[in-house]
């Protein structure tokens, strides 16, 4: 089986600054100048290397977390070491609002799939926004609703136990204009990262990508994966092929 031409994440030529990233967030568009000033003053940036923990299961939640650059996997491990991935969060995505609202310990690990710049809004600032900004409250309602729909789809995909379908649906789920507003038709993700998110090996993810390219759903470019038929990926159901299981 031949390898795709090239799939490798690349960094933007001019990285966003922290203030610019905050002002471009969709939840920040209707904040007052006073609210935006406090968000910029309180929110801080950390660097997490590939394989490092952004946050860990069992920790008390302290921040709302955003991805300025990189990619993060939300995952859990069993006592036997088996892992399950809940979601991949690309640049522009924010997560952890459920634990913040309930003021509880985290129930999952978040691990950087590549070197990542992480934004952290303190819990006090998060709850202050929740109490003082109706648009922010509406955003969170939509965020939680979209997240629920994503996880329902994830459970369905996991039950299908078909690598081609899991890879297709995994790619399709990442194009959510509310959860991940920064993504365009070209997604910068490696075969290894896609395999980790879809529960497939890098080689098996490669096979699935080549099949999806032949079917006209995507194109493998030097800059990443170009999505040609988003709805086709979201609805994809592979035909039974025991040789590829």
Write structural notes for this entry.
The two termini are 15 Å apart. The strands form three sheets. A four-stranded antiparallel beta sheet has the order 1-8-3-6. The protein has a four-stranded antiparallel beta sheet with strand order 2-7-4-5. It has a three-stranded antiparallel beta sheet with strand order 9-11-10. It has helices at residues 18-24, 33-42, 97-102, 123-132, 134-160, 163-173, 191-198, 202-214, 230-234, and strands at 44-48, 53-55, 63-69, 72-77, 83-89, 94-95, 109-112, 116-122, 186-187, 218-221, 224-227. It has two domains: 18-133, Jelly Rolls (Sandwich), CATH 2.60.120; 161-244, Winged helix-like DNA-binding domain superfamily/Winged helix DNA-binding domain (Arc Repressor Mutant, subunit A), CATH 1.10.10.10. It contains nine helices and eleven strands. It is an alpha+beta fold and 245 residues long. α5 runs antiparallel to α6 and α6 (163-173) packs across α7.
């Amino acid at each position: 089986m031949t390898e795709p031409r090239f799939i490798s994440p690349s960094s933007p030529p001019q990285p966003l600054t922290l203030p610019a990233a905050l002002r471009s967030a969709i939840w920040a568009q209707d904040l007052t100048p006073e609210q935006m000033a406090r968000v910029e003053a309180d929110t801080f940036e950390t660097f997490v290397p590939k394989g490092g923990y952004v946050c860990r299961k069992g920790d008390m939640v302290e921040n709302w977390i955003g991805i300025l650059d990189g990619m993060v996997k939300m995952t859990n491990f069993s006592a036997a070491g088996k892992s399950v991935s809940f979601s991949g969060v690309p640049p522009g995505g924010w997560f952890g609002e459920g634990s913040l609202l309930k003021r509880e310990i985290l129930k999952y690990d978040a691990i950087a799939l590549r070197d990542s710049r992480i934004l952290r809004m303190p819990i006090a600032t998060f709850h202050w926004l929740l109490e003082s900004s109706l648009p922010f409250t509406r955003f969170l309602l939509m965020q939680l609703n979209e997240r629920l729909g994503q996880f329902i789809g994830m459970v369905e995909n996991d039950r299908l136990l078909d690598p081609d379908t899991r890879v297709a649906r995994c790619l399709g789920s990442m194009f959510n204009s509310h959860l991940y507003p920064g993504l365009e038709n070209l997604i910068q993700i490696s075969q290894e990262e896609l395999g980790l998110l879809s529960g497939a090996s890098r080689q098996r993810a490669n096979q699935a990508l080549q099949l999806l390219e032949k079917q006209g759903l995507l194109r493998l470019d030097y800059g990443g994966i170009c999505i040609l038929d988003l709805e086709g990926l979201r609805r994809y159901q592979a035909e039974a092929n025991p040789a590829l299981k």
